[in-house]
Amino acid sequence: MPIKLPACEPCRTSKQACDHAKPCSRCRERGSPSACLYRARPFKKRRLEQAGQDLLGFSNTELPVAPPNPSPETRHDPAEGLTVVETLEPSRGMPSYPNPGFLGSSSHTTFFEHIPRDTADSGQLPTYSADEEEIRNGANLIDHIHRYCHIGSCIALVQRWISGGVNLALAGPLITTCAEVTQHVFSSYETSTPSGFTPARTISQTLFRNSSQPLNAGDHQGIAHWCAVFGVHNARWEMLGLFFAALAAATSHTPKFEPLYRSHQAQRDLEKLAVRFSDRCLDISLSLDRLNDLQLLLQYENWISHSCLHGDQSYISWRKLGDVISSLYALGYHERVDPTLPPLESFREVAFARAFSGDTNVSLFLGRPPRIDRKHCPWLPKQFQWSADAKVDYAAETQWSAICAVLKGEALDLFRVDDQAEKVRRANLIRDDADLQWSSLPPHFRLETTLKECTRPPIERDFLVSTLLNHLHVHFLLHLQLQVRVNDPGPQLVAIAARMFSLAIESILLKDFLAYSGTTLDWKVAYYGLAAAGIICLSLLKQSPIASDSGTSKAQMIQDLNVLVAVVETGVFIHPIDPNYALLSRATLTIKSLLRRLLTRDNRQPAPVTETDTLVPGPADITPETWNIWDNQHLQDFEVDFWLNLAEHPFLIETPTESLPTSQV
Question: What is the DSSP string of 522-534?
Fold first, then answer.
């Protein structure tokens, strides 16, 4: 039996015959005899035990010098409708330097900073180079992107989306550059590469090399300077991740784009794929332990992508927001980056302001404590002097959202004030601040008419809706904190809720005339609309009066509630496969039950409880006077539990049970 001789690595990976010489004739003909390498143990398969040791971080001395791409495991994911190719994540050694990020006054380095440093010590970090397993892992990702994404059509979709004047709220100025970089990276996929290496491996190696380099754009140059620095010859993993975050946003906001999808299900599948690739690029970037501004941009936009994909109740989205906040603190952006500049003039302060407003609003929506404490970032603007010709853009939306987030945080602080007189005094001060800020807005920033009568461009209309909803929400929270019994809302709170809800419903009906200005319409309806609808439902149950000067009638509120039920049930506004459908459908079931009872019978009080009835405890023991929706809650949120509890009101308890399918609960 002839002896089986191994092939060299270049011949083996290119699947060509090898004459087994050292170097072989093919490598000599290619002009790369130094690349002609042979594995030490070419015919011995790696045992599972050894693979497990590698995953735990043990070194393997029998690895080849230039190992081939591992055979991936293929599985079909029925939930995603995609064939997923997976490989084991490689381990990597500890970095040769610490990357502690921002170190404050109480850190271990404070005292050493008072000791003079040797002038010969440059203080620069050593250059990091990725190992072979990391490069191979990146090459697998490049192969997957090339296999599942038609890059040319994806770039066309992103360009079409931003041509309408919309973009990512924070990383928008970089997206055109990111699209050019992505086009350049994958246009080189089919080009010739050095012998023995696949195009994906060459691309991965280049991306790792560039991503390991420090950023050269300083604070004063700003993001516009980055567009020139990070061109096609400085491609980084972060830039690919930002492109796929933009692709996810463009897909989400473009109902049909025939080169890539025609149905809503296909649209969702592409959005999932884009978010998945953005996740992988972010994971690789973070694994380098080189936290920087570009990674922060990618983390923020990746959080927004997950919020749109998984919904505002998703723990994945909540965790992604926590990662953004952790990076902000690690980079020290809770401190003023440049005290000589006005607040929010620096890109880094804009990033912190957006994360701060997002943390405040998401925490309110979910009824959880915010993770950014205002006392650690006193520079956040509570007041701002607007210029008369201020431009309606994402920067203005960030500025106003941050101002309102500070006011909302102060309104929430009233929850811990026990003295009612002191609570009222503080609430009046916050209200005056909110009204002062609203009056200081330029006239073209305020929606003074109905949305239908507004003739502004779509993105400006959406901006005006967000601006007014943010302002009304501050007053909503103030009056909510002052209620002695929230189950019986006062006329001022009901009037504010009715105005918020009416604006949210009008936005749904005119959604084709709105464009993304920083927050999605789904978020506006779920965050502002459901909170307002909850108070309206409580007021209808209690027959609470409405402020006489509010201009809102009971008939208008009932009409708006009917519209919400109709657009959710018919799928005009939201589809069953969309992330917030379970929340909205649960709320509309309760609202529909309430409306049916209001329109079919009088709101009569239950029959008096007899002595016999009191002997058997049960739901009949609960009366409208004793029922309390927030008995076991401290933060007054209007998430799904609110609607489940509202459905147990004695006035609605006789309604036949209407349940959601198990998969949506």
Answer: HHHIIIIIHHHHH
Neighbours of 54 (CB within 10 A): 16
Q: How many CA atoms lie within 13 A of 392 on its CB side?
A: 23
3-state secondary structure of 197: coil
Q: What are phi and psi of 603, to 5 degrees?
A: -80, 75
* Distance of alpha carbon 199 from alpha carbon 399, whole angstroms: 45
* Cβ neighbours, 10 Å, residue 143: 20
Catalogue the long-range contacts made by 151-156 (C-beta closer than 8 Å, 24 or more residues apart): 151/182, 151/183, 151/186, 152/183, 153/257, 153/259, 153/260, 154/247, 154/260, 154/274, 155/179, 155/182, 155/183, 156/259
CA distances from 290 to 208, 295, 298, 529 (A): 12, 9, 13, 41
pTM of the predicted structure, to 2 decimals: 0.75
Cis before 23 (ω within 30): yes
- Nearest Cα to Cα of residue 5 among 19, 16, 15: 19
**Rounded CA gap, 294 and 280, in Å?**
15
**pLDDT tens column, 432-473:** 999 999 999 999 999 999 999 999 999 999 999 999 999 999
Task: Summarize pLDDT for 387-440 with one digit per residue, the tens.
Answer: 889 999 998 999 999 999 999 999 999 988 989 899 999 999 999 999 999 999
Query: How many residues comprise the chain?
Result: 665
The DSSP H or E segment spanning 456 is: none
Could you tell me if 154 and 238 are in contact, meaning their C-beta atoms sit under 8 angstroms apart?
Answer: no
* Three-state DSSP class for residue 83: strand
**Which residue, 452, 302, 49, is CA-closest to 294?**
302
Query: Phi and psi (nearest 5°) for 86?
Result: -120, 145
Residues 626-632, mean pLDDT to the nearest whole number: 49
Residue 334 tokens read as 């809770």
Cα–Cα dist 596/42, whole Å: 75
Q: What is the rounded distance in angstroms from the CA atom of residue 386 to the CA atom of residue 371?
A: 29
User: Which of 22, 23, 71 is CA-nearest to residue 46?
Assistant: 71
- Four-point Cα dihedral 202, 203, 206, 211, nearest 10: -150
Written as one string, the DSSP assignment of 556-601 is HHHHHHHHHHHHHHTTSS--TTSTTHHHHHHHHHHHHHHHHHHHHS
Q: For tokens 């405890």, what's the residue?
A: 617
Query: In this predicted model, what pLDDT tens digit does every residue of 157-188 receive, in sequence order?
Result: 999 999 999 999 999 989 999 999 999 999 88
